[in-house]
Design a protein that fits this description.
By secondary structure, this protein is of the alpha+beta class. The chain is built from five helices and five strands, in the order αβββαβαβαα. It has a domain of 97 residues: K homology (KH) domain (GMP Synthetase, Chain A, domain 3), CATH 3.30.300.20. It starts with a helix and ends in a 14-residue tail after the last helix.
């Protein structure tokens, strides 16, 4: 789909949602993950897509698949890039370059449930995350592109969930083996 078609689709959706805002709230497609043994998992989408993950060798995995942490960063970067592309289309900007790299720093001791020097549990949460955006469009000033990225960032749901520390409700169905 080209940028004009994306802009038209967004406009149609916006028009519908202005008339009937309640249609905007919906259940997102669930991600179902099944254990394949060891630290290998397979995530599945209702549309039939499957994505295997595994941990690095240092943590007992095979290291031949992406890790859940990488998948998380990929989700943040992909969502940001998608939001930027959509906002560019809606603004009539024809992008020539768009690349988003997400990086983070995590203390592996937290993944292992270890304590720090102070005797407290080390947090498994990444300490920081960085998004590096490369963007270009013919005839569009760099400042305008920076504004576009900031606007799009505020509308990227995955990144916003991280920034707002989305609460996670857990329901456990424990079965007797």
């Amino acid at each position: 789909m080209g940028m004009k078609e994306i802009a038209a689709a967004m406009k149609r959706t916006e028009d519908v949602l202005r008339r009937k805002p309640s249609m905007g709230l919906h259940d997102d497609a669930p991600a179902t993950v099944r254990w394949e043994g060891g630290t290998r998992m397979v995530a599945s989408h209702a549309n039939g897509a499957h994505l295997p993950t595994d941990m690095p060798v240092e943590l007992g995995g095979t290291g031949d698949q992406v890790s859940p942490g990488w998948l998380f960063r990929a989700g943040v970067a992909s969502c940001a890039a998608t939001s930027i592309a959509m906002h560019a289309a809606a603004s009539g900007i024809e992008l020539t370059v768009l690349e988003v790299r997400a990086s983070s720093r995590t203390d592996t001791r937290g993944i292992l449930g270890m304590e720090g020097e102070d005797g407290r549990a080390v947090d498994a949460v990444p300490r920081e995350m960085h998004l590096h955006v490369r963007i270009a469009a013919r005839g569009v000033a760099p400042e305008r592109l920076r504004e576009l990225v900031q606007k799009a960032r505020s509308c990227a749901p995955v990144g916003r969930a991280v920034e707002e520390a989305l609460p996670v409700n857990i329901h456990v169905d424990a079965e007797a083996a």
